[in-house]
Amino acid sequence: MVNNLISTYLIYLLGKALVLTALAPLVAGIIKKVKAFLQNRRGPGLFQLYFDIGKLLAKDSIISPTTSWIFTVTPFIYFAAAFGAAALAPVVAEVFFGTTGWQPDLFMLLYLFVLSRFFLVLAGLDAGSSFGGMGGAREMFVAVMVEPALLLASLTVALRAHSTNLTAMTLSAQTGFGGLSAIFAATAFFVVLIAETGRIPVDNPDTHLELTMIHEGMVLEYSGRRLGLIVWAVATKQLVLLVLFAALFWPFPLIIDSVAGQIVWLIVKVVLTAIALALTEMLANKMRLFKVPGFLAVASLLALLAIVAQ
Amino acid sequence: MNFTTIYLLMLLIFAVGLIITPVLCKKLKVANLFAHGIALLGSLAAVLCASFVFVTGPQAFSLPLYLPFMAFSVRVDYLAAYFLAIIGLVGAAASIYAVAYGREYFKRRFIVMAELYLAFLLSMLLVVSVSHVFAFLVVWEVMSVASFMLVGQEYDNPVSTKAAYLYLVMTHIGTAFIMTAFLLLAKTSGSMEFAELSALGADTWTKNAIFLCALIGFGTKAGLIPLHIWLPKAHPAAPTHVSALMSGVMLKTAIYGMTRFYLEFLGVGPAWWGGIILLFAIVSAVLGVLYAMMEHDIKSLLAYSSVENIGLIMLGMGAGMVLMSNGLTTLAGLAWAAALFHVLNHAVFKALLFFGAGAVISVTHTRDIEQHGGLIKVMPYTAVVFLIGAAAISALPPFNGFVSEWLIFQVLFNLPAAIGGVLGKMVAAVLISLLGLTGALAAACFVKAYGMIFLAKPRGNKAEQASEVSGFMLVPMFLMAILCLVLGIIAPKIMVLLRDILAPFFSEGVLDSLVNSAWYVLGFQQGQVSAGLSLPALGVVFGAGIVLAAIFYLLNGLGKSETGETWTCGIVPNARMEYTATGFSGPIRRAFGKVLLPQTEKVINTNTSPYSGWRVIYEVHITHVVDELVYQPLNRRIVIASRFMKEIQTGSVQLYIGYIMAVTIGMLIWSTRW
Questions:
Q1: Backbone angles phi, psi at B74, to 5 degrees
Q2: Fewer Cβ atoms within 10 Å of its own Cβ: the N or the C terminal residue of chain A?
Q3: Residue to test with chain A: of B450, B561, B595, most A Cβ within 10 A
Q4: Alpha helices in B238-374 (DSSP H)
Q5: Do B546 and A77 touch (CB under 8 A)?
Q6: Quick one: which of A165, A19, A146, A27 has its CA closest to A86?
Q7: Chain B contacts of A101, Cβ < 8 Å?
Q8: Cα angle B575, B577, B583; round to 5
Q9: Does residue B85 lie in a domain region?
Q10: Which residue from B221, B210, B310 is spatially nearest to B265, judged by alpha carbons?
Q11: The pLDDT of residue B54
Q12: Looking at the domain assignment, is residue B637 inside a domain?
């Protein structure tokens, strides 16, 4: 009986991960489209990233002789970590499996991101170029600054739910408007979202200029199938973070009883957050790297205020 | 076969080793195998002792030594057995490793080193198993002196000597405090036996004094900031297998001492005790890892990371004491379990990393990671195990470090239950975010270390000529690497063990809800809140991700992989284009500039030909705040004070006789006054 429930639960987690992974490039497409619209361009189609990934997955690769097996296996680990994070991401339906037994945990989700970052930075260093090292050093620097802000923002919800269990946190976040505290927490997490998804003003996803790039610097040596996997994983990670924002931090919850309704509402929230992300990217300038700690310190302080105001 | 027999057998094994090894001083190869073989046997006997206790229950016996004030009484309860097992486990691995590493010392006082190694290992095993105050202090001192001499093994190197003497001074300051704590305790309880030691009858002041003395005393040994200054100097100076033992195990004897005091002898104390420990612990964790991040000497880096990990362990202990004083015994049990779990985990992965570092040093002959690089190609096995160690210490799932760090997160998260209101939430939030910062910095630190040592191209000719190390080094490393993974996966089993260890210090049944009956879930339940962690489930999901990635990769056939040089804007890539460790830590050094106070030195030599460019030497030094603000001024004061004392120390015998006369007369007058 217990084993049966667990296997059903695991199948559910895998299914969720598959759906989120499949939808991730679409969400990335939406952000691009909104940005293009705001810049008075037509921009690539909504499904362009699928074509890109499809093309990359059919291409041969060039591998530097300097690299080792770390470089070769990292795309798989990176993809699997993003997939695992998608499996843990809090989508409404967890509730139907009850709150007893094992539930996805917040720290587990966050440490999957740490795992993927760990390997990607190593892969960046593996090729032995300055670009990889520069990207890696900056990535680790931003990660060090993001981590406290990310945890503080998550704690506002977790402390309210008295648990770091993602299901309990989702349920608690849906119970009602959290007041000023919820708005602070949402703002703080939004800042973290910008940094973690590598968007302006922290990083610029569209550039290969060595003065500004962080993520692109690390993956510069990748090509072909491996690059395809990384691109896809990055989109998945972005969607997971958007879902996290939508499920836990959306300041104005709607109480919806039906599962279908909840899922539709989640999709609406994710799309709205994606649009907000595109809008921020339009309105902000790329920030100097050493201004980023200040930017994230604001997020940390807001989250602390949110905890106090609770 | 009873416990006493096994224990005495262990002592006998070490005694034989200590006596016979010097006899073999003409046959160093035999001595090497013999001494370290004995150490291996002795360690295994210690593990056997511990397993015996876990199976049959606590054991105690006493040997009559007919010495005044001294009884050799041994008591191995579950707690002692746990530490005994850790020391035995790491000791066994280090002994195998030492066979290969010892060869380098054949021309450098090998016999002395082997003797001291045996004495050091034995004294650590005794420290956690004796149960008499005097016996404890004696073996504690033996441990300190043996490790001091091992740190000073290369006494022709002034850096080593200085580190050794600093260690000696600091450890004796610590021992003085430990002695005070024990004597105060023995005075209040009227006994020297651990079983009868208790501060129940003591007044508040005495209790506080005992608490602080134990904290300072054991804190010095554990390397708690600001008492840590000896640690990053002493650990790197010792031979590597000893460094592994010092960092992985010796620091834990201090944790053992603190656990005895705070959990057993002192009983439930006020909340501020825990608060103080939390404060020092979080400072140690953050500063320790920050200094580790800035370090380029691989062994110093690992030593600073030990300071960080001691901070993590003590976060669990401090939280446990806060929760305990508020009557939240179940959560307090969780906190202590988290701390003790991290003790085991840190012992395993720190030993692994030191072994790896030693392997790298033995083939490159330099500890500077700026001169390593590209070793993954010539040392493939060492590279794998070092990666596992780095992942475990960076708390990446599914390794053991992640489990104990998760538990510590959960403990801190439950602090608001003990400290009510906004204050509790703030304390929890700040501690958790700083712990997150520590985790991120640790990941950055070990990415840096791994990247610089093993990846890209060799940065110096020393790294180019490297080759893989021998099996004696690889076997213990692989054992520890496997343990890193196994301990992560069987974490629920370890939690059951930890519940048994902690149960005697708590009321009946309090800790039962800590362990989940399901083997695949590590969790606890407190009230309506449940939290759990399932690494197997994560493993399934992660594995599915890997499979999916492989499917997508192979969707269009295997594809061709061409070899093409790294893109460096059209120049032929060379090792000097690679990012250096200094460069990698640059942004973090700059962001934490207020704490690290970096000082850069840039020397530009313009005398060379104007066409071939200038020669630039760039160096960065960071300021160790505690050293500069506390110890150096103190040191200066001591020197000034001793200069005054010098005035009366002329070296003239007549004057000394005069002093003795004066004192004698003074004493006579004082004693016959009445």
A1: -115, 130
A2: N
A3: B561
A4: 240-245, 251-259, 271-294, 298-325, 329-364
A5: yes
A6: A19
A7: 518, 521, 532
A8: 110
A9: no
A10: B210
A11: 92
A12: yes
The residue of chain B with its CA nearest to that of A56 is: B553
Our measurement of the distance from residue B150's CA atom to the centroid of its chain's CA atoms, rounded to an integer in Å, reads 16
Among B308, B415, B579, B592, the strongest candidate for a mutation testing the A interface, having the largest count of A CBs within 10 A, is B579
Residues of B in contact with A14 (CB under 8 A): 540-541, 544
Q: How far apart are CA B303 and CA B295, in angstroms?
A: 10
Q: Using DSSP, state whether B605 is helix, strand or coil.
A: strand
Kindly state whether residue B650 falls inside one of the protein's structural domains: yes
The answer to whether B92 and B483 have CB atoms below 8 angstroms apart is no
| Cβ partners under 8 Å of residue B580, min gap 6 | B370, B452, B459
Residue range(s) defining the domain that contains residue B598: 585-621
Q: Chain A contact for B423, CB < 8 A?
A: no
The predicted-structure confidence for B539-581, as pLDDT tens digits, reads as follows 889 999 999 999 999 988 888 888 988 888 888 888 888 889 9
Strands B615-621 and B70-76: unpaired
Angle formed at CA B219 by CA B214 and CA B221, multiple of 5 degrees: 110
Asked if the Cβ–Cβ distance from A304 to B426 is below 8 Å, we say yes
Which chain A residues touch B518 with a CB distance below 8 Å?
2, 101-102
ipTM confidence: 0.95
How near does any CA of chain B get to the CA of A174, in Å?
A: 17
Give the C-alpha separation, B492 to B516, whole Å: 7
pTM for the whole structure: 0.94
A141 to B444: CB separation less than 8 angstroms, yes or no:
yes
- Local confidence pLDDT in tens for the 310 residues of chain A: 456 666 777 888 899 999 999 999 999 999 999 999 999 999 899 999 999 999 999 999 999 999 999 999 999 999 999 999 999 998 865 555 555 556 788 999 999 999 999 999 999 999 888 889 999 999 999 999 999 999 999 999 888 888 888 888 888 887 767 788 889 999 999 999 999 998 888 888 877 776 778 888 899 899 989 999 999 999 999 999 999 999 888 877 777 777 788 889 899 999 999 999 999 999 988 888 889 999 999 999 999 999 988 7
User: Which residue in chain A has the smallest CA separation from B531?
Assistant: A165
Domain shared by B605 and B631, yes or no: no
Residue of A nearest to B582 (CA): A137
How many domains is chain B built from? 2
Measured between CA atoms, the residue of chain A closest to residue B539 is A84
The number of beta carbons lying within 10 Å of the beta carbon of residue A126 is 27
Q: Tell me the nearest-neighbour CA distance from A39 into chain B, angstroms.
A: 31
A102:B537 CB<8 A: yes
Examine the pLDDT at B529 and tell me if it is beyond 70: no
Answer yes or no: are the C-beta atoms of A177 and A255 closer than 8 Å: no
Q: How far is B355 from chain A (nearest CA, A)?
A: 21
- Report pLDDT digits (tens) over B197-242: 888 878 889 999 999 999 999 999 999 988 999 999 999 999 999 9
- Residue A61: beta bridge partners? B561
Question: Domain locations in chain A?
Answer: 2-309
Per-residue confidence (pLDDT) for residue B447, from 0 to 100: 96
pLDDT of residue A96: 59
What does the pLDDT average to over B285-314?
A: 95
CB nearest to B559's CB, from A61, A77, A79: A61
Cβ burial B558-595 (10 Å sphere, 16+ → b, else e): ebeeeeeebbeeeeebebebbbbbbbbbbbbbebbeee
Q: Is residue B660 included in any domain, yes or no?
A: yes
Residue among A105, A137, A145 minimizing CB distance to B579: A137
The whole-number pLDDT of residue B69 equals: 67
Put simply, the answer to whether A84 touches B542 (Cβ < 8 Å) is yes
Per CB-CB distance under 8 Å, the chain A contacts of B406 are 105, 107-108, 111
Which residues of chain B make contact with A307, given a CB cutoff of 8 A? 425-426, 429
